[in-house]
Amino acid sequence: MRAPACRADRAGALHRDISCLIRIYTTGSPHEQPRTTLEDLVDRPFSALGLMSVAPDGMVHLSSSAGARAPAAVVAYACLEYASRATPGPGRISLGRLLHDDAGPGRVLRLQARSLRQALQAAATRHPQLALAESDGTEVLTFNRPPLALAWDVLDESYGRVRQRLGVHPEQDTPRIPATSREEGPHV
């Protein structure tokens, strides 16, 4: 007799988890009042990314161009953090890999090539350690510092030097996770 209750508990937990994800990633249903206060923004912290929307019929839709609205610093951070999985030091990574790898920022943020390029160019204008270049006919993001440290510098500069204020150094504490790719070599 316990099995049905366990399934019901799991189904209820799954429903709550999905509802929570939808809530934090959407601005709400079209029938809700617009969100304007800080508390409203905290209630739905990732809604500004525009990754999901709720249609009038209640259906949730994933945006095909959500990454175009993501701040350049966030896109650059995601790309550098992803690159750090393959190489801890200065190097390069292809834009194709950033766009198309299963766990890459292009897939996660649903970026189009143009949006990725624009965000990285904007970040590179503020951070000369970053550059877009061409290598053997392939567009690459190059970085002349360890990518994880640079990723945190890019993010930190855009969001008020949080690491310095709090005295934390997450770029030193983050464990490396091996990257998987369809391409050969850590720098392609």
Q: Notable features of this structure?
A:
188 residues; alpha+beta; 3-stranded antiparallel sheet; two-stranded antiparallel ribbon; 9 helices; 5 strands; 12% strand; disordered C terminus
Structure description:
The chain has 188 residues and is of the alpha+beta class. It has nine helices and five strands. The chain has helices at 2-25, 38-43, 72-84, 95-100, 105-108, 113-126, 147-158, 162-166, 170-173, and strands spanning 52-54, 60-62, 91-94, 130-135, 138-143. The strands form two sheets. It has a three-stranded antiparallel sheet. The protein has a two-stranded antiparallel ribbon with strand order 1-2. Strand 4 and strand 5 form a beta hairpin. The N and C termini lie far apart (56 Å).
